[in-house]
Design a protein that fits this description.
The chain is of the alpha/beta class. Helices cover 34% and strands 19% of the residues. The radius of gyration is 19 Å and the shape is globular. Bound molecules: N-carbamoyl-L-aspartate (NCD) and zinc ion (ZN). The site of N-carbamoyl-L-aspartate (NCD) has 11 residues, from loops.
Length: 349
Amino acid sequence: MKTFTILKPDDWHLHLREGLVLKNIINFTSKYFGRAIVMPNTKTPVTTIDKAIFYKKLISEALPKSSKFEPLMTMYLTDETNKEELINGFKNNVFFAAKLYPANATTNSSHGVKKIENLYEIFESMQESGMPLLIHGEVTDSEVDIFDREEVFIDKELSPLIQRFPKLKIVLEHITTSHAVSFVEENNLGATITPHHLHINRNAMFFGGLNSDFYCLPVAKRENNRIALRKAATSGKECFFLGTDSAPHLRQWKAFCGCAGIFNSPVAIESYLQVFEEENALDQFEKFASLNGPNFYNMPINKEKIRLVSRLNKIPEFIDVIDKNKVVGQIKPFHAGETLNWQVEGIVN
Ligand code: NCD
Ligand code: ZN
């Protein structure tokens, strides 16, 4: 049995939702992650300091009493974003970063930005104050093929943006293409990589009939892209770090509307480990999971460690959402019903 320890990881891209779902899922992240960047695409998006403070309070209340987990809040940028609110929120440690969703690119993004140029003044101030910009990098133009939306975004939107704001600290989120991998490497950006984009290619969505379990945004691409992502994640290169993009949707909603999002927080560390082992790169895992992120964001690394053990780990078909001791809903986790080779055994002090 193989076993090793790594410094406690952080999740640099996470959806925690609200209400009962939040209460039922937070523990999957707070147990073994030190911090997580919490996405602001709640039903009413987090667009102000007050909303971020309120949402952070909901998250803290949902945490187990003894938890040291730290949620890092983000502001959802819109065409109406108030620059003073954003920068004040950053300077007063309410916002850790700002999130750019092109309008209608993904779940709960209808308030997103219609024209990136409208935000240039805001980016100017973010660049000056060192506030990170997190980008959902897809164009939303219906004429652009869904499998090309990341590449077109990089060439048409991101490229001019970084030329105009060379010192703006940018993270291209949940990258899915070899084009994104090279662009991030060549332009001094950061990038998060999800477990699911390391495991599946676009075939997964069509295996055994249309399968929304593997539908997320950006959608998984061709196999050559998955290979490029695996190489990037396991390379140890500082620009690539862990961001699960765990995005729970209740089973009934997935079935009804096929909403985009894969819930991977119950299996995220194990899922990544499987990939690192397959790539003979277990020795690079700590960099990806626990060091590259804090280095990019100039944050201290976590002090505690977690112990990882190679042992068969059967993943449940569903995670229950419980209210007053009654199951009121279910969410399908990534790898549902599969047996993985790794397990997190616990915290080592
Ligand atoms: C996310 C969600 O459900 O909030 N969905 C997804 O497919 N990743 C939104 C997002 O990050 O795009
Ligand atoms: Zn996301």
